[in-house]
Amino acid sequence: MRYIFAFDGGGTKTEISVHDLSGKQHFSKLGEGSNHTSLGGENFHNVIGNLFDDAKKELKISNEDIVFVFLGLSGADLESDFVKLDNACKKIFNNIPFKVVNDAWLILRSGLKEPYGAVAICGTGANSAAINKDGKRAILRSLGYTLGIYGGGLDIAREGLHYAFRAEELTYIPTILEQEIPTLLGVKDMSEVVDFFYPERKISRQQFGEITGLVFKCSDKGDTVSQDILRRIGTFLGLQTSGVIRQVDCHNEEIPVVIGGGVFEKANHYLLDSFEAALKSVVPKAKIVRPMYSPVIGAFLSALDELNIKQDATIEQNLTRKKR
Fold first, then answer.
1. What's the pLDDT score for residue 12?
2. Among 29, 99, 102, 188, which is least packed by CB within 10 angstroms?
3. What is the reported pTM?
4. Cα separation of 194 and 186, whole Å?
């Protein structure tokens, strides 16, 4: 039997899923984060290598049984990243064919039956990518606000904090975030919230995520500041996604746009409506769709594309079953 190894590597966790060519899953496991830019190249090699070895050991197979390895990785942004990642993967996989892409492409493929369309991601961070019917691709750098990206969950939290501080200092209109954020953090008022950021940052990523959720809750309660934050974020996401679609010359086509990421999964109409409006102001025939599978399955489907294997009904049926 021949196998495909699929990886979804992020900053906090890495998932491996092993399938045969008919889509049946034979192994899956979660490991630690593998982002080489934030966690280091040695950590990347250890996490990917250990998951790779664990799968081979449990399945009692050798490298000769593996037809392809496909990896979608956070931190795969610039050409220099791909050089480092490709060199590291060659040491792990030896002569097994493999391909490394940015993890945004996994979410795109997880929502489509063929590699044509666009993706908008709003999770901890944000990203957008698109591919046309000729295979031309475009993806954002996704390297922070200064280099052009905006609109992730951390940005929503920062905006919420910004306007809560401004409300407290009477430099902007009132917002219930001024009361809700200190309560969330277990302090009395925004003056005590300052201690979480100055002179050094003490707030955790989890707490940041909770503030993101708080902005959504406050918007649903009628807080206009929170509503404006989400509309603004949605607009940025829509314009960023329309930009990559324009780069591949599909803005006049009926193109599917997959939306993924934890924030999009829980988003309300303030963010979603503004995203759709901004997107369709440039790409009027865009059709928004949700992912059908997890990102790691998107990696498996991408491997099928590389092998010129069509995603047929048998494969789709097998992907819905639990592994043996």
1. 79
2. 188
3. 0.89
4. 13
